[in-house]
Design a protein that fits this description.
By secondary structure, this protein is of the alpha/beta class. It contains nine helices and 13 strands. The chain has a single domain, classed as Rossmann fold, CATH 3.40.50.150.
């Protein structure tokens, strides 16, 4: 099966489970109660979005899209999972927020979304599902008005190459892979801790180096405003990780420090 098609089936299954939020991983009830707080990394860097036209790519079922709208953004979310987008639309309608959700592949975003936008927003667990950084960066650029910006936060390429074995981090996979040779996984449950079994467990992911990500953005006409590395993540990527407060996780003090996440802002033109 085509990797993107396989991933879409898997994310449809995940969306069903995530929308129930039986473990509280997503904090949907807090959002229903009016929460607009993002994770500490994003909150500390994103800045004021009031009045900005924001395209949230790979929005899943739209929790951050809703939070952005509550901060005054004119927010549109895009995701390739029909089930996730159905859930996002239902949530937006339930909350009475003027958010728009569009189903589609991120590589088709420039034709699917009514741009131009002032900001493209991409966060957490996004890039590994995309085979081609060069094509992605061109799509982001095509969505933006002149002077518009990308805000991106994701897991660090160095961390993505590691796994935990016997309470130690070891090099487990290449730091980057060709477009036609993604990693193949077969996880029968999702990452939230819910026990529900996935009907479509096979997924494909890609590893992208910093040079591939940044090089693609520069080639697409962006200039880098900042690039930050972080020792915390909004999920426990390894069993050894410990709570760091505000929903974040870090490696234990007994483990050498390692960048777990990165964030950047890049402006077009």
């Amino acid at each position: 099966m085509d990797p993107i098609a396989a991933n879409r089936l898997n994310w449809d299954d995940r969306a069903e489970i995530h929308l129930r939020d039986s473990t509280g991983f997503y904090g949907i009830n807090a959002v229903r109660a009016g929460e607009k707080r993002l994770d500490p990394i994003v909150d500390g860097e994103l800045g004021d979005v009031a009045g900005l036209r924001v395209a949230h790519l790979q929005c899943h079922f739209g929790l951050d899209t809703v939070r952005l709208a509550r901060r005054g953004a004119i927010a549109t979310g895009l995701d390739f999972s029909p089930r996730a987008i159905a859930g996002a639309r239902a949530l937006g309608a339930e909350l009475g927020l003027p958010v728009r959700f569009v189903e589609g592949n991120v590589y088709d975003a420039a034709t699917l979304l009514d741009g131009p936008f002032d900001l493209v927003y991409v966060t957490w667990g996004a890039l590994c599902w995309l085979p081609d950084m060069t094509r992605w960066a061109r799509v982001v650029a095509a969505l933006l008005a002149p002077g518009g910006a990308l805000y991106l936060a994701d897991s660090h390429p160095a961390m993505n190459a590691l796994d935990e074995q016997d309470e130690r981090l070891v090099l487990a996979r290449p730091w980057q892979v060709p477009i036609d040779a993604p990693f193949r996984y077969n996880d029968t449950t999702t990452y939230t801790g819910a026990p529900d079994m996935l009907a479509h467990s096979q997924t494909y992911e890609w590893a992208h180096s910093f040079s591939a990500i940044l090089g693609a953005l520069l080639a697409a006409g962006f200039r880098l405003d900042f690039l930050h590395e972080h020792e915390t993540l909004p999920w426990p990527a390894f069993p050894m990780m410990e709570p760091a407060g505000a929903g974040m996780f870090r490696l234990p003090a007994s483990t050498p420090a390692l960048p777990l996440a990165f964030s950047l802002r890049a402006t077009l033109g």
